[in-house]
Amino acid sequence: MANMTTEFMALWDGISTDPNVRVMVLAATNRPSELDEAILRRLPQAFDIGMPDRKEKYEILKVDIFELCEKATYFPIREILEKEGKGRPCPVPRPLSQLDLEKVLDWIWRKFLLCRRRRKLQQASTVG
């Protein structure tokens, strides 16, 4: 994370010194207490966006469930494409199943664990 911050700051300095560049930087974090002072100096305005209320949580959950179902629909479609690729016609996709949803959840969980592992390794490399 520190390497990425350093590179970001170096690139940002180049933008701020060129009078012909018109750039707006928008940043968001769920950990404002961990922001570097140099970044805070470059971001003159801050807006605190509180936690979502019950209705907003419902809307977020609705979007997440829709995306989960959308990703799960790719499994029957992929099966059709694989069969057609092997010369076997498959006119109708099979119905979506609980297993399809579980596969998507498993994929999301593995992706989350991989990102968390990478973050810990980056933190360990910057500390050590």
What does this entry look like structurally?
The protein is mainly α and 128 residues long. The protein folds into two domains: 1-50, no CATH class; 52-128, no CATH class. It contains five helices and no strands. Helix 3 (54-72) packs across helix 5. The longest helix is centred in the last third of the chain and has 30 residues, at 98-127.
Separation of the first and last Cα atoms? 13 Å
How big is the Rg?
A: 22 Å
Average pLDDT across residues? 85
Unreliable segments (pLDDT under 50, ≥5 consecutive)?
none
Largest sheet: none
**N-to-C order of helices and strands:** HHHHH
What percentage of the residues does DSSP assign to strands (E)?
Answer: under 5%
Number of helices: 5
Structural class: mainly alpha
* Overall outline: elongated
What is the β-strand count? 0
Pfam families: AAA
Keywords: ATP-binding, Mitochondrion, Nucleotide-binding
Domain ATPase AAA-type core: 5-49
Main location: mitochondrion
Short description:
It is built from five helices and no strands.
Summarize this structure as a short list of keywords or feature phrases.
single chain, 128 residues, mainly alpha, 5 helices
Task: Describe the SSE topology.
Blueprint lengths: L1 H16 L19 H6 L11 H19 L1 H12 L12 H30 L1
